[in-house]
Specification:
This protein is α+β, with helices and mostly antiparallel strands. It has 12 helices and 23 strands. Strand 13 and strand 14 form a beta hairpin. The longest helix is centred in the last third of the chain and has 20 residues. The chain is elongated and about 105 Å long. Bound molecules: calcium ion (4 copies) and zinc ion (ZN).
């Protein structure tokens, strides 16, 4: 492959660079990619979406679509590179990869590299930790003292990183690891320690007796703002005001509402190596019925094969309860099969099972032998106005949650492959055969078989339960239709007649890997057209 758009996939991109890449992809591949803004962030940045499909084979809105986004949590940056890589790979490999050509003939992709550009920019440009900031940039008075963001982290030593503070103390419960002097280890109950840990670099800026209590690092949680099982702030910390009160999420919601062809969705987070599905909360277990769980399981288990080291898990059961999460809205509110992947697994460090703690021995070894200690700021002394003589040191923001550059591209490719498998299994409708029977007197019986060649139905069980999307229409035009019916059993000749508007038969669902039959009695019409029009299954005609 000799790509038209040159991008290095072993590094990270700030907002300006993302803007440049999405525009270059669209300019280089006008028949495959379009870029538009779905709205503005709080600070006024455009939120870019790339629409990827083979436009020569039909409009994106008439095809089942896969929606992909990243970076809802500001510090969880690599979802943007993974999303961008997907758009880049689809467009660049189209020329010589038959599978991609077929996929883009049938499907569309809506790819939003970052749905939180303000937070991303803060993470890149300001001193931060691997876990900050989580929020976008709407200002909040976290401690309700009447002041906003009055006590953020402070980069005390001015090195551009927010690391840890420690102090020698006879009552401290930590000591230095003799194996790696940079690492602090907790002492046992019967041991004496020599250091206490004082948290992240900071001062009590406003003299209220607390350090780092109100800053940009945690204002609210953008992934608790979505309109399904939403709970207010006193039940669910970080919920902010009401569902879709954040402008970035509202822009996504409005885009999704305008694109009812979205049948599948993927959001990217970090970290831990997980392929997550809902429900986010125990209360919603009933909304995931057996048929849908079967489809989630088929996709999720394939994902475990495609992305070694990642585990397919259920949020509320295997992680924690969360209300008003994005994946719950996509499935609960829109009936869309959705996964959230927690990117970066520490197993990638030495290709064996590992934990990802910033204080785990393997993390230090990996930094020492593969990153050559580039990810760690060595401890150094500092005179703290409140704590006295302390030391500052620890991992930089770009390690423990984000992939080191040399491991970024292969994991992006594997996660993309999982989303392509997911997209492949959105419905593929085909008018399989049309059988005519002459009934005499210029009348004929037309029986059409509509097959769905993929795993997903045109309506998830959640969709059917709440009537989220209209039924699928199977239309006969070009002849006078006298009667129309759904064949419940063609073999036994059992039909359910539709007396109103028989030319357009409504079927509630076309399940995956199966077919439905419809029949009309028509008069005349040597040449007629049968059209299947499904919101999530696309439009096909014969
Ligand atoms: Ca405050
Ligand atoms: Ca610092
Ligand atoms: Ca304070
Ligand atoms: Ca305060
Ligand atoms: Zn996250």
């Amino acid at each position: 492959m000799n790509p038209k758009v040159q991008v290095s996939w072993n590094k990270y991109y700030d907002y300006a660079a993302i803007t440049d890449i999405v525009k270059k992809i669209a300019a280089a591949h006008p028949n495959l990619a379009k870029v538009q803004s779905i709205g503005k962030s709080f600070e006024g940045r455009d939120i870019w979406v790339l629409t990827i499909t083979d436009f020569k084979k039909g409009d994106d809105t008439k095809k089942p679509a896969m929606y992909i986004d990243g970076n809802i949590h500001s510090n969880e940056i690599q979802g943007s590179e993974f999303s961008l890589y997907t758009a880049w790979y689809l467009t660049e490999s189209f020329g010589d990869t038959k599978h991609i050509q077929e996929l883009l003939a049938d499907k569309a992709f809506y790819i939003v590299p970052t749905i939180n550009p303000d937070g991303r920019e803060h993470y890149f440009k300001k001193p931060n930790t691997a876990s900050s900031p989580r929020s976008g940039r709407l200002p909040i008075d976290n401690d309700r003292d009447g002041l906003i963001d009055e006590d953020d982290y402070d980069d005390l030593d001015g090195d551009g990183h927010i690391t840890m503070m420690r102090r020698k103390s006879p009552t401290g419960r930590y000591r230095i690891d003799p194996e790696d002097k940079r690492r602090m280890i907790a002492v046992g109950n019967d041991e004496e320690g020599e250091y206490e840990l004082l948290g992240l670099e900071g001062l009590d800026n406003d003299g209220d007796g607390q350090v780092n209590e109100d800053g940009a690092h945690f204002e609210y949680d953008p992934n608790r703002d979505w309109g399904w099982s939403w709970q207010p702030n006193y039940i669910q910390g970080g919920a902010y005001k009401y569902p879709f009160s954040l402008p970035e999420n509202r822009a996504v919601m409005e885009f999704v509402m305008k694109h009812p062809n979205i049948a599948a969705a993927q959001s990217y987070h970090n970290a831990g190596g997980m392929i997550l599905r809902g429900p986010g909360a125990q209360e919603d277990v009933g909304t995931y019925n057996a048929e849908d769980v079967r489809i989630y399981d088929a996709l999720g288990k394939k994902g475990e094969e495609i992305i070694p080291g990642y585990r397919y898990l259920v949020v509320y059961k295997d992680l924690y309860s969360a209300y008003g999460g994005e994946l719950d809205w996509f499935y609960g509110g829109r009936g869309v099969y959705t996964f959230s992947n927690e990117l970066w697994t520490p197993n990638l460090m030495f290709n064996k099972e590992a934990t990802r703690g910033a204080n785990d021995a393997a993390t230090f070894e990996f930094d020492r032998y593969l990153l050559f200690k580039d990810a760690f700021v060595d401890w150094k002394e500092f005179d703290h106005p409140q704590y006295g003589k302390i030391e500052i040191g620890g991992f930089k923001k770009n390690f423990t949650r984000a992939h080191p550059g040399f491991l970024l591209e292969s994991d992006a490719h594997r996660n993309m492959a999982f989303t392509l498998y997911h997209a492949y299994h959105t419905p593929k409708l085909e008018i399989q055969d049309v059988v005519e029977k002459d009934l005499g007197d210029g009348l004929k019986e037309v029986t059409a078989t509509i097959a769905n060649k993929r795993l997903m139905p045109t309506h998830s069980s959640q969709d059917l339960k709440y009537k989220i999307e209209r039924p699928d229409y199977i239309k006969l035009t070009g002849a006078k239709v006298l009667a129309g019916m759904v064949m419940e059993s063609a073999d036994l000749n059992i039909a359910k007649e539709q007396t109103t508007n028989p030319g357009t038969i409504e079927v509630p669902n076309i399940p995956g890997l199966t077919s439905v039959k419809v029949r009309w009695i028509v008069q005349g019409g040597q040449k007629y057209t049968i059209t299947v029009d499904s919101k999530k299954g696309g439009v096909v005609a014969k």
